[in-house]
Amino acid sequence: MYVTESLGVDYIEQPSFDMQITYDEMTIYQPAFFVLFPGVDPTPDVELVGAKYGKTSEEKTFTNISMGQGQEQIAMNALKDCA
Predict the structure, then answer these.
(1) I need a surface site. Which of 15, 71, 74, 79 has the fewest CB within 10 A?
(2) Distance of alpha carbon 43 from alpha carbon 19, whole angstroms
(3) Distance set, CA 77 to CA 26, 51, 72 (Å)
(4) Which of 72, 26, 74 is nearest to 50 (CA)?
(5) Under a CB-based contact definition with an 8 Å cutoff, are residues 47 and 59 in contact?
(6) How many domains does the chain divide into?
(7) How far is Cα 42 from Cα 83, in angstroms, rounded to an integer?
(8) CA atoms within 13 A on the CB side of 71
């Protein structure tokens, strides 16, 4: 309440995440990496923006790997394939 009263609601409420804005800021030299928390899954938003530009899993132009134990080699292979 103190921050809201002193500085305003803009310092308390975060605008909703917009994957399109994030995509627009990305380049081949400035990629985006997502650090996720339990209950947070940006995959549908990422897939939606990808599909808008013709990048899909079906076309093999989009690869989604949920990193975790044992996924390192799969990720390395995907990077090599994409390169």
Answers:
(1) 15
(2) 10
(3) 23, 23, 9
(4) 26
(5) no
(6) 1
(7) 24
(8) 7
What residue has token string 């990808």? Answer: 50
Tell me, yes or no, if the pTM score tops 0.70: no
Q: What's the rounded Cα separation, in Å, for the pair 42 and 33?
A: 11
Within 8 A by CB and 6+ apart from 35, the residues are none
Give the pLDDT confidence of 54-69 residue by residue, as tens digits. Answer: 999 999 889 988 888 8
CB 67 within 8 A of CB 75: yes
| Residue span of the structural domain in which 74 resides | 2-82
Locate all alpha helices (DSSP H) within 1-83, ordered by sequence: 2-7, 19-25, 43-52, 72-82
Take residue 27 and report the two structure tokens written for it: 């380049």
